[in-house]
Amino acid sequence: RSSDLAVEDVLGPLNQLLGGCREVVQKQVCDDVSRRLATLQQMWQNGKLSPSVRKRMKILVQELQVQHWDAADEIHRSLMVDHVNEVSQWMVGVKRLIAEARNLPVEAADTPKGDGR
Question: For residue 76, what are the contacts with CB-CB under 8 A and spacing of at least 6?
Fold first, then answer.
């Protein structure tokens, strides 16, 4: 059941990733992403996001945690197409986070990556 999804399960990893980006990414970019994640959190907690959006965000975060950037990007795009009214205020922040995380040096992203082959 999607009501079992806790906002922390999505926001925790996103904020962690943002923390990794803060070392190398411009402060104003990080602050903007941070504000948008706060909007996501608020909408989630106020019941403004449909089960489908919450479920897909959970999957998006799982893809980010294993550094499947393209898969995460794909989910972000599908959310923009299918649920633009729900996600438009904050998804640009998630998109930026995916883009910045993709460019991070491996150790900053902080998840094992294998030998790069």
Answer: 60, 91, 94, 95, 98
Please give the chain's pLDDT, 117 residues, in tens: 445 689 999 999 999 999 999 989 999 999 999 999 999 999 999 999 999 999 999 999 999 999 999 999 999 999 999 999 999 999 999 999 999 999 987 655 554 444 443
- Across 67-76, b (16+ Cβ under 10 Å) vs e yields bebeebbebb
Instruction: Say how far apart CA 36 and CA 113 lie, in whole Å.
Output: 28
Tokens of 94: 């998630």
Report which DSSP code applies to 24: T
Cα 65 to Cα 68, 84, 109, 110: the distances in Å are 8, 24, 9, 9
DSSP state of 35: H
Is residue 97 helix, strand or coil? helix
